[in-house]
Amino acid sequence: MSLSPGEGARSRSVWWWGRRRAALLDVGLAALAALETAAGGYTLAAGRLHLGTALAVLAAVVGGLAGATLLVRRRWPALPVMVSMVLVPGLFGGVLLEVALYTLAATWIWPSRRLRLVGLSTVVFLETTAMVLFLFLTSDPQPGEQTPPTWVTALVAVLVAAGLTVVPLVTGLYIGARRRLLESLKDRAQGLEAELDLLAERATERARRARLEERTRIAREMHDVVAHRVSLMVVHAGALERIAARDPEKAAQSAKLMADTGRQALNELREILGVLRMNEEPVERVLGLTELPRLVDQSKAAGMRVTLTVSGDRTPYRGDAEQTAYRVVQEGLTNAHKHAGGARVSVLLAYVPNGVRVAVVNDRPGAGEQVGLPSGGNGLVGMEERVRALGGSFSAGPERDGGFRVEATLPSRLAARADRLA
User: Fold this and answer.
1) Which residues contact 35 (CB under 8 A, 6 or more apart)?
2) How many domains does the chain divide into?
3) Which residues contact 22 (CB under 8 A, 6 or more apart)?
4) Is residue 255 one of the residues assigned to a domain?
């Protein structure tokens, strides 16, 4: 299993160092500072204070330990600063002082710890200025050397102290701010990457749903075409089988109707399958309410006793609305062919104030021979889904007299009136 960059850095960490390179850097700085403070402690004890060899060695050891505090500068950045404050009066520990002040400014977040940072750095600056000024004022001038004015000595002391304290502080503040800016930009980039991944997942999910909806739509269209046309063909084939011997003329008429119905089914299937092969947006032939009389006539030709009743003022509707209403009637007639052979069937088309209503109602099935066509039970479910998707209402169920009703109402907002374009 692969590790993320953060996990890899933690696995290579040594104690409180995030990387081995940082540990090696701190060890090198601590060694350099330890050598410098050890030499300064020995010189102070043996050269200026004349304390003897034993105490001088002890001072060197203490100085070396003081310089070694740079090892913990990343964990406790204030500790090396406070240790350097102890060494400043001895006029040694410059490396420790500068590195400690830089670390303090770079690691302490300015807004939240500014009082401690300002307090420590001010004390170190004043202490360093005082000790440099003391060194200048107590040094013995060479014979014939002109002593500069006191204000010049004070100015030089301030400049030297600023070089020892202010410069590392400002550098540390800049590096710390830059580091935090890069971290915030990295976090923001990771956040944006996560958002892009989420958007990509959502886009993939939307595409999957769109493909699923398109497959469902095509499956419904194919069901509508195949179920209705094949039902008519089976009915005609049954009639042809019964009358072929005794009424050749009527048998020929039934055969012609079967051929016409088959060609219509093939044409509609070809249009549906053509949609799958086209890269551009297809232009499909919309089956509307004006074609209901032809649909009813096809059922009449198959021997069904069916009537069409139209009421209300004709109002054109959107293509998807008219095709849905057409498919509802088609499914109702298909069910009547399958389950109500010989029964009277009424097709109702009513333009009402709140929309358009279509219904297919058949009486109780007669005692004659039933066609016995197979049924998957998905036709009415698909019709209801279509109607509900357009905001309409759908109902299908048995009547009190033993018949069956399929009814759908589509809302008037789907009407394709010219004033809607204004």
Assistant:
1) 64, 67
2) 2
3) 74
4) no
CA angle, corner 335, sides to 330 and 339, nearest 5? Answer: 155
| Residues contacting 143, CB < 8 A, separation 6+ | none
Q: Are 284 and 251 in contact (CB under 8 A)?
A: no
Paired residues of 394 in beta bridges = 408
Whether the CB-CB separation of 406 and 360 falls below 8 Å is answered with: yes
Could you read off the pLDDT of 171-182 as tens digits, one per residue? Answer: 888 888 888 888
Q: Residue 323, Cα to own-chain centre: how many angstroms? A: 37
The answer for residues whose C-beta is within 8 angstroms of residue 321's C-beta and 6 or more apart is 356, 390, 410, 414
Residue 258: inside a domain: no
**Token pair 């219509």 in the structure block, residue:** 264
pLDDT at 228: 63
pLDDT bin (cut points 50, 70, 90) of residue 73 is confident
Please, where are the H alpha helices in 139-291? 150-243, 248-277
- State which H helix or E strand residue 333 sits in: helix 319-339
Q: For the domain that residue 383 is a member of, what is the CATH number?
A: 3.30.565.10
The answer to the question of residue 340 being in a domain is yes
pLDDT value of residue 369: 46
The sign one gets for the Cα dihedral 339, 340, 342, 346 is negative
Under the banding of pLDDT at 50, 70 and 90, the label for residue 422 is very low
Matching residue, tokens 């060479």: 142
Residue 311's pLDDT band (cuts 50, 70, 90): very high
Containing structural domain, residue 368: 286-422
pLDDT of residue 81: 84
Q: How far is 409 from 356, CA to CA, in rounded Å?
A: 6
What tokens appear for 69 in the block? Answer: 């505090």
Closest CA to 379 of 325, 322, 334, 326: 334
Name which residue leads in pLDDT, 27 or 48: 27
β-strands 344-352, 355-362 pairing: antiparallel
From the list 203, 208, 127, the residue with the least C-alpha distance to 160 is: 127
Residue in 117, 158, 103 with CA at minimum distance from that of residue 136: 158
The yes-or-no verdict on residue 381 having pLDDT over 70 is yes
Q: Round to whole Å and give the CA distance between 328 and 322.
A: 10
